[in-house]
Amino acid sequence: MLGWLLRHPKPDFPTAQKSGITSQTGGGVSVQGLTTTASILVALALPAGAQTILPVEFVKVEATPLTYDAALTGTINAKDSVEIGFRLGGRIMSVDVRVGDEVKKGQALARTDPLQQVQALRVAQAAEAAATATWEQARQAQIRAEAMLSRGVGTRAALDSANQSLSAAAGALTQAKSTLGQAQRALADTVLRAPHNAIVTTRNAEVGQIVGAAQTVLGLASQSGREAVFRTPDTPLLRHAIGAPVTLAGIDVPDLQMTAYVSEISPIVDPGTGSVTVRATIKDAPTNSNLLGAAVHGAIHYPAGTGVAVPWTALTSTGDSPAVWLVDANGRVAMTPIGIERFSNGTVILNSGVSPGQIVVGAGSQLLYPGRQVQDAATIPKGSP
Fold this sequence. Notes:
The chain is 23% helix and 35% strand. It is α+β, with helices and mostly antiparallel strands. The longest helix has 37 residues, at 115-151. It comes from Paracoccus mangrovi.
């Protein structure tokens, strides 16, 4: 080999190969430098005539439609849910439902002690009866005063007094009826009823417990309408996912397969987890209660514009920057720095460094050095040495 080097002082490859090794603190070397140096040493060990054209994979750079893919994990919730309680506080006498029960609109769910409301209702009924009797007496007196005045045996003052008494009695009757209505509603409010057809999801009170006004006693979920709720890291691409389809698969129930559509993306990032909430409305979801709270996998796919994608096998590096090997018109390669936008399954999405129509090296790029001549492995007939 020494004799060959003396006879060939200037080998036929670029001098850039001599700078392939990059010194680092502590005497280390970069992997890219070792690969390039190893390729150079192999080339030096061969006579110039024995250096063959290296077959590699040619990849033509094209602007292709990009798809954003994300794997999500979440749970299935009711699209509409409500927490209900008594309008007035009191001691709970009974809770007639359990978690998971299906209830109908107007069905009694729980009751409080109605003793005070019953007594208030009786007082209001008595007051309303008395006000009715007073009004009736005032009305009869007004009729008599008006008749006597018309026959000339009464006075205008007597009629005015009768009219005033009738007006006062009518006002008292109206107030008594209002009080009676309030008492009746208060008694009705001792029974907690379902506002619509629903499924009981939570039970927060038991018999004998004293609850305040509007304190949550039961949680209800609508029987119709289901949505998948996910928490995922925030990304600018996610902001364009409204309406995108989501394929759902059950975790505990593998046979559960559904399709949903993204309906809401929270604009606020959770400071504790750094994630955002994504809601997807499930199409034709089953209405049974077993589905609520079920854990699901979600796969979301939607167009993300166009870009340049190359296979991950084309990726290499120059110093601290990513790069690819470009093939010129003469079949020789040169390293070109690139900008990476993001990684996808099997491909790398680029935002700078290459243009549509150029050729980059895919498989086999680890064997290259600047100026190395290559050819497309796909053009070599099968069975050729």
